[in-house]
Structures are given as structure tokens and as C-alpha cells.
Design a protein that fits this description.
Strand order of the largest sheet: 1-2
Radius of gyration: 37 Å
Structural class: mainly alpha
Shape: elongated
Order of helices and strands: HHEEHHHHHHHHHHHHHHHHHHHHHHHH
Number of domains: 2
Largest sheet: 2 strands, antiparallel
Length: 619
């Protein structure tokens, strides 16, 4: 089927252009921004489905001798539909979350721009276009995390998130330059065929950028800061856009990781260790959004692990399933935050009972996050673990332990909102006041919960094989029955233990509640030395460089003064002497000019006499 020419530019262009107009439109777009945003998101989803079916490709000259473009293959087709569908669900929710007095035009415009940038990222056929979209996505995340810019702590959180991801983004610049130097091209296809050492440099840059964007160790702490934004931002950011972009990039460039011989191993272990460490962090949280944020790091880590062990179909399945589950959970948490004014799990007891639709759908998402059969993440996670088990037993054991932690933190969240509220919690709720969860906030939840349930059919071998062919992944084993049985049984056991211990109060270690002190460590090891170096260089510039420049100017002025004192008076005397002599000669020359004829005859006679004497002397 031939694809219409407008699809590839139109898919990201529609939300991008409309979003930009709304973002800069000011108060003029306030009234109709939510409606327009939902309409644009709906049209974008339709374009995404058409794009996924027709698989268009485009190529344009970027610079002289260098072409750039976009293409949709199996992996991109899955991603464009996922991103567009989640964006629509989140924007529908946001129409109820955002209050009328807030800057709705700016908010919905930034959200559409964010979506458009992610759509460019997943359809880019080369590093140049991908880098441009990568940067726009980072800028939009900064603006959205700090959307409530009048609160200094939120702005600081946006600053920290932006600077941290930007540090990782430098790797993508390195990769793009190295690819151009190695092959004269920046195309994503064929990066693994580059000669050494360029291939290693390209891989190192991509791994750095991907780990930073996907909040993997040691960059994970920025995702905690991202919770400062509105709930709709958290839902979109954590599920299908920016945080998933790093995992997508690793899945896209998996042949390059394998070709280097070291990058695949590094990525696999980075994913496994992040899943384990951030799973423990999630278990320790009492703030619901912080728990979900840490769980995002841990669940994205299974996608990263999939890229490392060449489980591309499994990693992509994990990405899609996680997008539905995590957007569902964040929207549920956002609904309770807006209605009850709290995200503390101790104060959310009874919330699911008071708002049953939110509570039931949240429970579905939580059980899927726990990896309980037959829900979606049980299958997708095990598709990755099956391949990991074939490659490395230690890697598999670490990943399996991380999967069990997922059951623990997911059940902690579900139990917290379903426990009946005690008298003190009810009094606190009455004191804060409550509001009704509106229809726009409820509408997306059942659809996302349905995806979280139905995607579990990917565990059927024939279905998974079809999924693998759809994604275009090389041959890889599907989730093994033994692995599914083991992990499912263990997840159920952990869930039952959590349920039995639902009233237990165990103080979590401080370093887990504080996200392993990663932010403090980075500030101590990286930020403060950089600031100290910058201040030292500033002092060096002020005192040494500026002193040298000032010294040169002062020396020049001193030499000029010396030259003036030494030579200017003599030169002036010579000039004055010449002028005086000329004046005197002029005065002497004027004396013979009397105007009397006899005087002139006398002068002529004297001149002839002198001439005669001279001739006589010469001859």
C-alpha cells in the first residue's frame, strides 16, 4: 500500500504546530485550549494508525552530500500508536485536572509539543533528526515539570531534572559526530558496521544518552524531581514519552550494542541493577507519586535489560504494557491528589472505597505492575527474563529478584488505597475537604485498565511470535512456560505476604527513602567540584587575565607618557626652530622689496658684481 505523502510530516507536525501556537497564544487560547488539544490528539491517533498500516518513508537533503529523513518500520509503528493513544488518554484527563484560572493554553500547547517531539523521535531514520527531537523533548519536559513556576521548589526540581538529562544528552552529540566522521552519514541503520574505534564511540554516546533519558543508574534521581509537575505531565512523561525514549533508542540500536562486544553487557547489567535498586527505593516510599516514579525507573530497566540481551520483541512488549499500566496508575494517583489534596499513602486509606471506579482501575494497574498472572507485565517482563536466563544466570537471578520487588511495591500501593480509613484519617480528609472526581478524569481509566488486562494474551506462543514479526525483531524465544509459572507463583506469594502484613509498620532505611542519596552524591562529587572550578576560573579570569590585559594597557600608556616627555619637547623645538628660521628668512626676503626702481638697479648691479667675482674665482 502506498502511503500518502502527508502522513510522516503530518503525524508529528499536527500536534507540534498546533501546540506551538497554543503555547505562545497567551490568554487568547485559554477558553478553547482543552477542547482543541483533545481534538488534535484524536486526529493524531488516527494519523498514527494510518502511518502504522502504510509504513511510509521519506528522505530529504539535510546538508550538502548528507541526507536525512524519517521512516516507519515495525518498531516505529508500535511506538507511534502507543504514544498517540496514551497522549490522548492523558489529555482527556488533563481537561478535568487543570483549573480554569490556570494557563491552560500554555499547558496544553506544551503537552502537544511534547507529544510531537516524541513522535519525531520514534520515526527518525537518522541521528540528526533524532537529536533535534530529543532536544525539544527535553526542553518541553523542563517547561512542564516547572509549569507552576511561581513555586521556587518546583522550578528547582525542573532545573535539576533538566541539567541531569542534559548531561546524558551530550552523549548523543558525541555519537552523531562520530557517526558522521566514521561513515559520512548519520543514519541509524548500519551503525554497527562502523569501523573501530568509531563504533565504540558511537555506542558509548548512545548508551550515555539513553541511560540519562530513561533515568537509569546513576541518573535515576531526576525522575523523583519530575514529580513536581502536574499529574498529567507525570503520566505522559513516565509512560510513553521521554522516560521511554532512552529504552526505545537502545532497542532501536540493539545491533550496534551487540557489535561492540561490551555495550550490550553494560546495558544489560545497568538495567538489571537499576530494576533491583530502584525497586527497593519504591518499596521504601510513603509518597504515592514517588513510589510510582521509582517503579518507573525499575520497570523501564526491564526494557533496557531487553536491549542488552537482544530481547527486542520482549523489551518492546514491556514498553507498550508499561505505558498503559503506568499512565493508568499516575492518572489514578492524580485523581486522588486533586480530590483529596494528598499523595501520602498513610492519608489515602479508604480512597479507593470512596472513589470506586478510580480504585478498581488502580487496583488492576497495580496488580499488573506486580506481575501477577495473567496480566500484561507478567508476560512482557518474563519475555525478557527468559532470554536473560539463556545468557547469564547471575543476570537472571538479579532480574528475578527485581521482579519480586515489583510485586512488593505494587501491592504496597494497592493495599494503601484500599485499606479502610481510620478515624484520624477521616478527620484529616474532612479538614482538607474533598471534591468530586470529574467525568474527564474517569473516562480514560477503564480503557487503560482493559489494555493492562488484554495485553497478557502475548504470553500465548503464537501471539508472541506474531508480535515479534510485527516489531520486526530477529528470532528470539517467547516467554517460557516454566519461567512464567515460576515468576507468576513467586509474584503471587509476595503479594499474599504483603497482604498479610498490610498493617505492619516497618521503618525503611533513610538512604532508600532518599533515592539512594544519588542526588546528594552527584551534588558532592560532580556539581560542587564543577562550581568550585568555575569560580576558580572566574577568579583566574578576573585577577590574572584581566590583570594582564590591564597591565598591557597601563604599560602602553606609560610608554606613551615617557615618549612624550622624552621626545615630544625636542621635536616641538625643531619645528619651532624651522618655523622661526622660515619667518626670519621671509622677513629678510621682504626687505629688498621696496618698490623703488633705483633700488632694484642697485641690487642688480651688486648681483652682477658678485657673479663676476665668482666666475673669476672659478675660472
Amino acid at each position: 500500500m502506498s502511503a500518502p505523502l502527508f502522513l510522516l510530516p503530518g503525524l508529528p507536525g499536527l500536534p507540534g504546530v498546533v501546540g506551538a501556537l497554543m503555547a505562545v497564544g497567551g490568554r487568547g487560547t485559554q477558553r478553547f485550549a482543552p477542547t482543541v488539544a483533545v481534538m488534535v490528539a484524536t486526529a493524531t491517533l488516527v494519523l498514527a494508525v494510518l502511518t502504522a498500516v502504510t509504513r511510509p518513508t521519506t528522505s530529504v537533503p539535510l546538508f550538502a552530500g548528507l541526507r536525512s529523513g524519517a521512516r516507519v518500520d515495525g518498531l516505529s509503528a508500535v511506538m507511534v500508536v502507543t504514544v498517540s493513544a496514551v497522549a490522548l488518554a492523558v489529555l482527556v484527563f488533563a481537561t478535568g485536572e487543570m483549573r480554569a484560572e490556570e494557563s491552560c493554553g500554555r499547558f496544553f500547547g506544551l503537552m502537544l509539543l511534547f507529544t510531537g517531539a516524541m513522535l519525531v523521535t520514534v520515526t527518525a531514520a537518522d541521528l540528526a533528526i533524532l537529536l533535534m527531537a530529543w532536544e525539544v523533548m527535553g526542553a518541553m519536559s523542563y517547561a512542564l515539570i516547572g509549569f507552576w513556576w511561581r513555586a521556587p521548589d518546583r522550578v528547582r526540581s525542573a532545573d535539576i531534572a533538566f541539567v541531569t538529562t542534559r548531561a546524558g544528552d551530550l552523549g548523543l552529540y558525541l555519537s552523531t559526530g562520530a557517526a558522521l566522521a566514521a561513515t559520512g552519514s548519520v543514519g541509524l541503520a548500519g551503525l554497527g558496521e562502523s569501523a573501530r574505534p568509531w563504533r565504540d564511540i558511537i555506542a558509548a554516546g548512545i548508551v550515555l544518552a539513553a541511560l540519562g533519558k530513561s533515568a537509569q543508574l546513576p541518573f535515576s534521581f531526576w525522575l523523583s524531581r519530575a514529580m513536581a509537575g502536574p499529574s498529567a505531565v507525570s503520566a505522559l512523561l513516565h509512560s510513553a514519552t521521554m522516560v521511554a525514549a532512552g529504552a526505545y533508542l537502545l532497542l532501536r540500536t540493539q545491533p550496534l550494542l551487540t557489535a561492540t562486544g561490551w555495550a550490550a553487557t553494560l546495558v544489560a547489567w545497568a538495567g538489571a541493577l537499576t530494576a533491583l535498586a530502584l525497586g527497593a527505593v519504591a518499596v521504601a516510599q510513603r509518597d504515592l507519586k514517588q513510589l510510582l516514579a521509582a517503579s518507573t525507573c525499575a520497570q523501564i530497566a526491564f526494557m533496557v535489560l531487553g536491549a542488552g540481551v537482544a530481547a527486542v520483541a520482549g523489551g518492546t512488549a514491556q514498553l507498550v504494557a508499561h505505558a498503559a499500566v503506568k499512565s493508568l496508575l499516575f492518572l489514578g494517583a492524580g485523581a486522588w491528589l486533586a480530590a483529596l489534596g494528598t499523595k501520602d499513602m498513610g492519608e489515602l486509606h479508604g480512597a479507593a472505597r470512596e472513589y470506586p471506579l478510580v480504585g478498581i482501575t488502580f487496583a488492576v494497574g497495580g496488580l499488573a505492575l506486580a506481575g501477577l498472572p495473567p496480566l500484561s507485565l507478567w508476560v512482557s517482563k518474563d519475555a525478557v527474563l527468559t532470554v536473560a536466563a539463556d545468557q547469564s544466570t547471575p543476570l537472571y537471578l538479579v532480574s528475578l529478584a527485581a521482579a519480586l520487588l515489583a510485586a512488593a511495591y505494587a501491592m504496597k500501593a494497592v493495599i494503601a488505597v484500599w485499606l479502610p480509613a481510620d478515624a484520624e484519617t477521616r478527620r484529616d480528609t474532612e479538614r482538607r475537604g474533598t471534591r468530586r472526581v470529574g467525568l474527564p478524569e474517569r473516562v480514560p481509566l477503564p480503557a487503560l485498565a482493559l489494555v493492562a488486562v488484554l495485553f497478557g494474551v502475548a504470553g500465548i506462543p503464537a501471539v508472541f511470535d506474531g508480535w515479534r514479526r510485527l516489531v520486526g525483531a530477529p528470532a528470539e524465544p517467547g516467554p517460557a512456560f516454566a519461567e512464567l509459572l515460576l515468576s507468576g507463583a513467586l509474584a503471587v506469594a509476595v503479594a499474599l505476604v504483603a497482604l498479610a502484613a498490610r498493617r505492619a509498620r516497618v521503618a525503611a532505611p533513610g538512604f532508600l527513602r532518599e533515592w539512594l542519596f544519588l542526588e546528594r552524591g552527584v551534588i558532592a562529587v560532580v556539581w560542587r567540584p564543577l562550581v568550585a572550578l568555575a569560580r576558580a576560573l572566574a577568579r583566574f579570569d578576573d585577577r590574572v587575565i584581566d590583570g594582564f590585559v590591564g597591565g598591557v594597557s597601563r604599560t602602553g600608556m606609560g610608554l606613551a607618557a615617557l615618549m612624550r616627555r622624552t621626545f615630544e619637547k625636542g621635536v616641538d623645538d625643531v619645528v619651532r626652530g624651522v618655523a622661526t628660521g622660515a619667518a626670519r628668512l621671509g622677513a629678510l626676503a621682504r626687505r629688498p622689496q621696496t618698490g623703488q626702481v633705483h633700488t632694484y638697479f642697485a641690487q642688480a648691479a651688486v648681483a652682477l658684481l658678485v657673479l663676476a667675482v665668482v666666475v673669476a674665482l672659478v675660472v
